[in-house]
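Teaching note: in complex prediction, the entire set of molecules is handled at once rather than each chain in isolation. The prompt given to students was simply: 'Predict the structure of this complex.' The entities are:
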Amino acid sequence: MLKAFKYRIAPTPDQAELLNKHCGAVRFVYNLALETKTFAYSTKQVNVSRMELSAQLTDLKKECEWLKEVNSQSLQSALLNLDIAYSNFFKGTADFPTFKKKNRKQSFQCPQNVVVDFTKGTIDLPKFKEPIKAVFHRTFTGSVRTVTISRTPTGKYFASVLVDTAAVIPTKAPVERSTSVGVDLGIKTFAVLSDGTEYANPKHLNQSIDRLKVLQRRASKKKKGSNNRKKANRKVAVLHEKIANQRKDFLHKASDAITKRYDTVVLEDLAVANMVKNPGRSGVPGEPHKLARSISDAGWGMFRQFVEYKSEWRGKNVLTIGRFEPSSKLHNTCGYINKDLLSSDREWICPNCNELVSRDLNASINILNFGLLKHSGRQSSGEPVESPTLVGTLKQEKLKRASAPAYRPDL
Ligand SMILES: [Zn+2]
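The expected output is the structure of the full assembly:
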């Protein structure tokens, strides 16, 4: 089983310089390859493959001597990542790849020849004369696959080590209603489960977001290129990082609790959840809720990733439901569809059965029901299930009536 372990590393100034060179070179190659591919496609309608680009790296190094200081496998990995980004775009699971920017989080990969030494407390990377000091808060056993080095905008360095732990992947638990849960993700409340449990967004997270808005405004008022602007931007970056960590911590706790308690988790298709719940997403710039929204967007994606890999470790199932299920509008007990439901309605009275319906709880129960229904349909047989039609039902009814014993009033 593959597992990732992330450690803080403490490079010397020389090592930091070489790490930065790696980040810069990888960014340069990635961006150049993206430009080449886009240009080739838009002007000549040809696809430049990774193999071709990879073969061209040798020529590029003759032009740019400084690339030789960098581990060439890291450059190859950049091309591989671009390939993955392209195929995700064509699969429809991601936006078109964009250029990597210098002021964002930087990273590069070492696919081979990394030595992690717990006794010495170091990580040794190809092209580095001395191993880099690392803080190992936990150890692992198994073989190292790839190592990704990253640098945050505030200048911290991390190594994320992907390890093949040789542990056997547990067999999946059966999908049963009694051990399944539906999860409705939202903006106000982070998640509502079909058992009624609510995961509120942590309060300190909201406070930090408010503070972030203030700092961003302040930074934008400082003169461009000035030292004060730089200082203000650094404050923004530090707080950004703090928020990201707080959010991650919260998402880990929530995904841990859910995947431990339940054997099957049903989630909504995220692209759709975004569209439905964030109608003004691409709307007016500077819109007050935009920041909170973009942060909740990112949170949902990360939550799903966490739930997916933790389920993998624990032998649990993840089911997803798609876009055509009316999860909020359908009353889960009586089947009434409330077409007039507004996105601001937190509760509504069902006109059909007079029950008070709590929006998020109702949605999470529907998510659970749809997920299980879809799953049972997939499982029942390899044959596509014929869905009932009006004419079919009519014929069935006639058959039933014909075969039923005649009505005998005397009995
Ligand atoms: Zn009802």
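Point out the following to students. Confidence is low (pLDDT under 50) at residues 279-288, 380-387, 405-411. The chain has two domains: 2-164, 169-197+259-381.
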